From TrEMBL, chains A, B:
Residues 91-528 form the Aldehyde dehydrogenase domain. This is Oxidoreductase. Keywords: NAD, Oxidoreductase. GO terms for biological process: L-proline catabolic process to L-glutamate. Gene3D superfamilies: Aldehyde Dehydrogenase, Chain A, domain 1 (3.40.605.10), Aldehyde Dehydrogenase, Chain A, domain 2 (3.40.309.10).
């Protein structure tokens, strides 16, 4: 039962080995350069990728998969670009049946081959990173550089990270073992044991509108590598990045000698609720979901035949106690609020500041001065429209605009509409900052996804930590940060973060931002608070995607 | 944040290191000698252990824990011995509150200290193994040697195995890491990251009547080692082995400087349903259960705030195709059916034999000859009462007797009552074997826990494999075996076992039995079929019992 190395494994063995080291050390590492510069990717890559993307617009997406009955087009670009791509759509039964049929040969190929083929899919996606970045940009509303990084390089890093965890988990036990038990004066008992890695069944990945690749890749590749065929159900607003992904995966699988139906795209016609139909299928044994708390909770409660991994919503919180770099604090937080117009699941929402103000390297700052400092940093980033849109991108959908219209109170910074210089139909909004009293928990105690943040006036830093603990404990959070020059406060914040189960960043005043997590080093989400039931990526994220089934027989004495 | 090694860790570091090697290699290893011989444990150990056990009878069990309102005694020994031990009983609120309060200091002690303290608990249990074995024997009905092995040495091995997995999982990531990202021409970005292992909350372990220690220890120690306080809810019929366990755990925890309320006993008064009350508490975030499918399914459906690990019932199956050692086959299966009167979750129930018989080293054997051969082996083991009871032990409860009375059909071997030479009030029954047609799936397609097995006449081995796949796929199984001299049949059986998700033993004719699994080498249950949703022990069994919460801050440039 020894596996002959598959050529795709051999080709990527070094990368996989390096990734295995990275997940064990969790220092800095990246496999896919994040700079779209011609110096890194060559002079022609950007134009070729954009041309490949443009060629798709207005056409049927070239995807030959079973069960296609008709073609649907559901995307509306936040940049106002007419996408007009239609996708094969049809019979859920046919998709699930085709996926299930592909399982045994993929299972029997073994961990090493599966991981090698998955690594080749990543390499092929990387070769098409500019096309992918354009697709992410024009469906999610991210600015180009962010789409290239978060939607391209970082998504691939997260995918490779999941692949490494899956490989580590599958190979922590040998494929075979000899067992020899002493038996007193007689011959020892000798057995040969074989340990099969057995996938759970069909896996379903439900993508989101804002990060169609970054949030989908870890689950997709963790499930595929562990032997499960994957049905990818994209958000109706961001199909193209995942259609490209599915097409490339299918090509590589076929080249490697496997059934391409191991990866299938399941788009939905408006109102079809195909995600729910798929999630309740008995063949579907794994679900990965990123999106609203309401739907994530529904999946957890109803897709009982499956193991369900969810990333939902929360109230990301910043505790401001004091700082020795007030300008850096304002710049750093201002950038975090502005990036992608706050449409990241990791964007800070609640900035807790003592009503009496804070001490800084610029002397005492009142709460209003703190709020004004952050607002000024946002204002500076967004003053020039051409520069602003490279940070803000565009607004992903009308839900965000509705929340912007709804939010009220003591406005520190008004949201402004900006005309996008390159895309006149783009919907662009700058962040708003609203000042609230600590008792306005009905407002700040829930998520306002989009460019909406609150400066909350608390009695003291101790009070801030109480609010932090209470709101995050109840509603969850994906990120948290603290600013303090006092080690005791930093320790208390860390203890509160551990109690609430949320990752904490301390005194970020430079080029690391609370809303960014680095693959191979930072865990994204923790699974320890209501915002998510899993982390990207740890052992728990991969270990439940397969089981071990053993056989044993005697060896000759 | 470096941990100074706790003395209990230092004391057991070598054992833990050896256990970590064992779980990675999965060859033969054992930390606790399974022979109760005086040559191993000393001349006085057996008598002292029995005396310690006898001293407990008729008394209040010495356990000082919070919330005790009254004392309850619920055990009735299958051997007819009057146990009369009463246990503290009372306020669920007080137990859960005390457990929750003990969490932070235990969490903050870190993985190494926790694992060291847990290893010391195991060593202390081992020092009391004869007392423990008596307690298992007289509550479960196991014969002494089995109680010593399965309830003592093997249970401790399984506990240590779970401890090793927990330690491996917690230490696969460093406690701290440095991250240095190149930043073009500027100084690199440098951060220090701390990764906290954070337990899920209070863990609940629900024990069973037949294997109070063996089935409870893995979950208990996996949860405790990962930082979760554990409330142990024993079966009302087998409290004493877990009361001893809880007492010793509390003593060691207190000695080590921790709150003894990290391990608590929650006995129930008759009809109280305290397991359900505990399982639904919001503080309870992990449940480990061994027992009926009905209650396991209830826990999975209702204890939604918790991660639930269940081992339930199934239809263990033997496919008999051919053999080159017919006598060995009969002896081996006869022993498996007789051991503990078939009251193991791993005892074979359905023996699938082609109606046309099989080829053997003794020539062709008809189905009736196969059945008679197995029956004769059982008969030989149980002919002499004094010898028989050392295999059969006693019948654990009236449910088993009811099934024996209910089962009907073409009886190959009648169950007999045996007078126990040492315990006149013991309820002892030998196995029955019933012959069924393949269409009697209403009978053999469900579990008949106890000394009840079926020889099912199939059309062919291919038909046997179809039945195997179908019944195990639908009802689950913990064990399966195949007998064949044909490699193609063995391969087909292995494929069927992988498809059905059940562990397979091939051609067992010697001193390894299908109902026994060896810690550190054999996985018990797979989690891949309806009989259990988890395996003892793999990465998935421990990874979900904690989360990682990180903090990060800049390092000086």
């Amino acid at each position: 039962m020894t596996e002959t190395p598959h050529p795709m494994y051999t080709a990527h063995a070094d990368t996989l080995a390096r990734a295995l080291t990275a997940i064990a050390e969790r220092g800095y590492w990246s496999a896919y350069p994040e700079s779209p510069s011609p110096r890194v990717y060559g002079e022609t890559a950007a134009a070729q990728g954009e041309a490949a993307f443009r060629a798709l617009l207005g056409n049927r997406y070239p995807l030959d998969q079973p069960g296609t009955v008709d073609w649907v087009a559901t995307e509306a670009s936040p940049f106002g670009v007419d996408l007009g791509v239609s996708y094969p759509h049809g019979d859920v039964d046919a998709l699930v049946t085709a996926a299930r049929a592909a399982l045994p040969a993929w299972r029997d190929a073994g961990p090493q081959t599966r991981v090698g083929v998955c690594a080749e899919i990543l390499a092929r996606l990387h070769a098409n990173i500019f096309e992918l970045a354009n697709a992410v940009q024009f469906t999610s509303g991210q600015a180009f550089v962010m789409a290239f990084q978060a939607g391209g390089a970082h998504a691939l890093d997260r995918a490779l990270e999941a692949l490494a965890y899956a490989y580590a988990e599958m190979s922590r036990h040998p494929g075979t073992a000899e067992w020899e038990k002493p038996a007193g004066k007689g011959d020892p008992l000798r057995m040969s044991k074989t340990f099969h890695v057995v996938p759970r069944g069909v896996a379903l990945v439900i993508g989101c509108n804002t990060f169609p690749t970054w949030n989908s890749y870890p689950g997709l590749f963790a499930s595929l590598a562990t032997g499960n065929p994957v049905v990818v159900k994209p958000h109706p607003g961001a199909v193209l990045p995942l259609a490209i992904t599915v097409r490339i995966a299918r090509e590589v699988l076929a080249e490697a000698g496997f059934d391409p139906n191991l990866v299938l795209l399941a788009v939905e016609a408006p109102g079809e609720k195909i995600a729910s139909t798929l999630a309740l299928r008995p063949e579907v044994r794994i679900v990965d979901f990123t999106g609203s708390t309401e739907y994530g909770d529904w999946l957890e409660a109803n897709a009982r035949q499956a193991t369900v991994y969810t990333e939902k919503a929360g109230v990301n919180t910043i505790v401001v106690d004091s700082t020795d770099d007030f300008a850096g604090l304002c710049r750093n937080l201002g950038f975090s609020l502005t990036l992608y117009s706050g449409q990241m699941c990791t964007t800070p929402q609640n900035i807790l500041v003592p009503a009496g103000g804070i001490s800084t390297d610029q002397g005492h700052k009142s709460l209003d001065e703190v709020a004004a400092g952050i607002a000024a940093a946002v204002g500076k980033l967004t003053a020039d429209p051409a520069r602003a849109v490279e940070f803000t991108g565009a607004i992903v959908n009308d839900g965000v605009l509705a929340r912007l219209a709804e939010v009220g109170g003591d406005v520190v910074l008004e949201s402004r509409a900006i005309d996008h210089p390159a895309h006149p139909a783009a919907v662009v909004r700058t962040p708003t900052i609203v000042k609230l009293a600590a008792d306005a928990v009905d407002t700040y105690g829930r998520e306002w996804f989009g460019p909406i943040s609150f400066v909350v006036a608390t009695d003291s830093t101790a009070h801030s930590l109480d609010i932090f603990r209470e709101t995050v404990g109840r509603k969850g959070a994906l990120t948290a940060a603290v600013y303090s020059t006092d080690e005791k406060v930093l320790d208390a914040a860390e203890e509160a973060a551990v109690d609430a189960g949320v990752h904490l960043s301390c005194n970020l005043t430079g080029q690391v931002f609370v809303n960014q997590s680095a693959a191979f080093s930072d865990f994204h989400a923790s699974g320890a608070n209501p915002a998510a039931n899993a982390a990207l990526t740890d052992g728990a994220y991969v270990a439940g995607r397969f089981r071990i089934v053993q056989s044993r027989r005697h060896l000759p004495a």
